[in-house]
Description:
The complex is a heterodimer. Chain A is 75% helix and 0% strand. Chain A has helices at residues 2-42, 46-52, 56-87, 93-105, 108-122, 128-136, 139-149, 154-163, 167-175, 180-195, 199-204, 213-218, 228-246. Chain B folds into two domains: 2-43, no CATH class; 50-128, conserved putative lor/sdh protein from methanococcus maripaludis s2 fold, CATH 2.40.420. The radius of gyration of chain B is 28 Å and the shape is rod-shaped. The chains are: A mainly alpha, B alpha+beta. The interface between A and B is medium-sized, with 24 and 21 residues.
Amino acid sequence: MACKKEKLYYKTSKLSFIFIKGIINVIAIIFILPVLLTVIKSAGHYRELLFDCFIFYPMFWNSLFYATVITIIQMAVIIPCAFGLSNGKFRGRKFIFFIYVILMMMPFQVTMLPNYIGLRELGILNTRTGIILPMVFSPFGLVVMHQYMKKINTSVIEAVRLETNSVITVIWKGVVPQVKTCIMAVFLFTFAECYNMLEQPMLFLKEDNLKTLPVFISQADKYEGGVLFPAAVIYMIPVFLLYLSLGKNLEGRTGAGNL
Amino acid sequence: MQEIYNTTRKKQEKLSIPPVIIYVITILFFGTMAFLTFKARDIHEKGLPHVKHQKLGIIPKDAIHNNQVFIIKTMVKNGEERTFAEARVIKTGEETKEGYKIASGTDMWDSIITFSDRELKDGAEVVIIK
């Protein structure tokens, strides 16, 4: 009797699993359909884009350049900041973190004008520095890393502190190995965010040679031929490749689940 | 349930792409984009007529076909200035050893194409030989 019940339970579980899997597959197909349509419609138009629209190339490399530089510098900035805010003991620590959370939740349109005025006063409007500098101090990565760093093993840090007084060595040898998965996840999300930025290049840059690929795609009607779809396909590839390389790190039990 | 999960997980691991292939695709993709960044314009221009031009004066007889000449027109295409050939019907004037003077049909600031390495069409993009 117990054996029959087990078999029935197993059969029902398998059926429900297949049913749920079916629904998830349908939802996945619905999400992937626009991407598939883009790839299909881009066929036959690559020549017009790659051999007749040369403004595409500087914009492509600009997108990669900004995303890579901003992400690398941001990692170098937010890891020590997050460590200080999570494990440091000083007055105003919680208040500073609260300000960061508020800043993270503010949409770009709110900080757009102060950003523009600040960049104009610094004289870095219409330059690459004007795009990189504000994004380096983006609060998203810091807030995420701060939450993750609260759970690290402090005894490891104390062990490293016994050997050295250097904060950089403590962070490099004691903190970074413990938060590697979180660093990979933040790296991926930050890279994607910077790669996809549209408003900053549109507002802060005048020359087309400094602008990025999202600007090109948003103004694709300015260009002759069907360049929109092949540009969108080529635009997707770098982030897709990056996800294939680093995506496995997001599947760990201490990975993106904690984001 | 655990067995189903384990089976699905094993299938996922079999389907995952090996890192070597990802690296090879990455190098191929960025290598192709880098190559095209520097060479796409040359490849594009190889397929275009290469022309010489001059301002008004004596136009060589070879440049005139059926009372028609081509003039250089500069227009913005895909965010940059490019040169195109525009056909104009003309009336030839005085004939000399070198060619013809143009009596009417062109303006004084027009540059007339005097030589082309291939057949020209109205509105075709051209490359100017210096």
